[in-house]
Design goal:
- It is built from 1 helix and 20 strands.
- It is mainly β.
- The protein has a single domain, classed as 5 Propeller (Tachylectin-2, Chain A).
- The strands form 5 sheets. A 4-stranded antiparallel sheet has the order 1-20-19-18, with no helix packed on it.
- The longest helix is centred in the N-terminal third of the chain and has 19 residues, at 3-21.
Length: 294
Amino acid sequence: MQLGAVVALIATALGIVSWLLGGPVAGGEYLGSYTWTPPFRDAGGYSALWLAPDGSGFVTLSDRGTWVRGTLARDAEGVVAGVTMTESGALASEAGRGRAVSRHGRDAESIAETGGAFYVAYEGRHRVMRFDDLDAVPVAIPGAPAFAEFDDNAGIEALAADAAGALYAIPEETGDLRRPFPVFRFAEGEWTTPFTLPRRGAFLVTGADVGPDGRLYVLEREFALLGFRTRVRSVGLDGGDERTEFESRLGQHDNLEGIVVWRDAAGRLRVTMISDDNQMPRFQRTEFVDYLLE
């Protein structure tokens, strides 16, 4: 092979790698990532994330029904640079502390906070529970009839709360690429479906948050043989004004499932996400990922 052809081949290969690992396809500014290796056994599988308003204090939940509370150290750019764990435990059953929660029923996938209480959505046995604190005995929230129709591993992946205390829940899958994602709203003791979110490609829902700007931000994931692609879209709370905030390159991030939208000290709109390593640390990683929207 001639030298020119070799150089062209190398350039093409480098171009493909750059495309896979480069910046976002659309919008947003990728700020950085931090890989967290928790110092205890059976860590990982973190699918849900809550942050304090200043982006420092955090809570994360695993799909084994455990929780971790701590603080995030951030560098000069505001990117997560270290994790300090202060507390951890297992989410209690509604039957009481110490009562075992079946494997089928402990798959915590998302968390939202409002009125001083945490709300947790589960897959498997699809439900939303209210925890007055992470180590408290939870209270069940009446479920929507549609929850019973969800597949075991495709239930409520996204849960968010607005400033008025209403909850928004979105399932991971709809079973049909032509069928939009229903957005369920819980307010005044009942669930309604005020709007749907159009499906765009093969992405599935993995998380959601209502930002300080009053918009619903939805985290989505697409899996291919080379890894994951991440997208964040936002809509108004009436379902209108859909926007693609950013879309990552294939393989740029791990399996991002938890999302928080917040404002930093400079007033900039930020997104922090956490990845679920599926309890396979040899092949995947738990990472915090930061983006700037403004």
